[in-house]
Amino acid sequence: MSDYIVGLTGGIGSGKSTVANQFAELGVTIVDADIVAREVVAPGSEGLQQIVQHFGTTILNTDDTLNRSLLREQVFSDPKQREWLNQLLHPMIRQRMLAQAKAATSPYAILVVPLLFENRLECLVNHTLVIDIGRDTQIRRTIDRDHVSKTQVINIIDSQISREQRLAKANDVITNEGDVESLKSQILALHNKYLKQSEKAQ
Predict the structure, then answer these.
(1) Which pathway does the record list (predicted)?
(2) Among 16, 72, 75, 135, which is 20 to 30 Å from 25 by CA?
(3) Which residue among 44, 72, 103 closes a domain?
(4) How many helices (H) and strands (E) does the chain have?
(5) Which domain holds residue 9?
């Protein structure tokens, strides 16, 4: 059981997964919001049943999995449908993330939540950690990783809270502009800090 939870966040392309994997190598339990979001709509889940009841079976692929791109089209063109979907899935995702974090075998757990501040989920964690990079690096890395246009990346960045707002809300910041060794030393220092803080929290 882990009662100390660190919320890890950062803009697109900042390296959240890279940092989370490094913490995982140190034995820390990682709970990833994106993975949990897929679990709550997996075949046989209550989330998927309710989506099918609402949108009809056309929302499914031939193998009975959720057709994500079709659902995305439906909700992005209609704010009411998006609101309905968020009200259904957000509580399920939150509940499952917290259950997984609290069941962690490590002294503390990390919740990886891309939109931690945008969705006001910082209330679920004891401490926030922001992965920070400059805008130019962010654009370049996302284009290289996702093979998308610069315009698309800029639209995503602009839909998230600003770098300044994110940094203002952060308890800790990892700067991910340098080499792997610089990143590792920052992570190790924070790991030791969180071990101490989790001991105090018990």
Answers:
(1) Cofactor biosynthesis; coenzyme A biosynthesis; CoA from (R)-pantothenate: step 5/5
(2) 135
(3) 103
(4) 9, 5
(5) 1-28+107-202
Residue 17, marked binder: yes
Q: Are residues 48 and 99 in the same domain?
A: yes
Exposure pattern of 135-157 as b/e (b: 16+ CB <10 Å)?
Answer: eeebbebbeeeeeeeeeebeebb
Question: 117 with 22, same domain?
Answer: yes
Q: What is the pTM of this model?
A: 0.89
150 labelled binding-site residue: no
Q: Does residue 182 have a known ligand-binding role?
A: no
Q: Please, what's the b/e burial string for 57-76 (b: 16 or more CB within 10 A of its CB; e: otherwise)?
A: eebbeeeeebeeeebeebbe
Where is the domain boundary, 82, 103, 124? Answer: 103
Secondary structure letter of residue 88 according to DSSP: H
User: Is there a contact between 129 and 173 (Cβ–Cβ < 8 Å)?
Assistant: yes
In the chain, how many domains are there? 2
Which position has the token pair 């018990």?
202
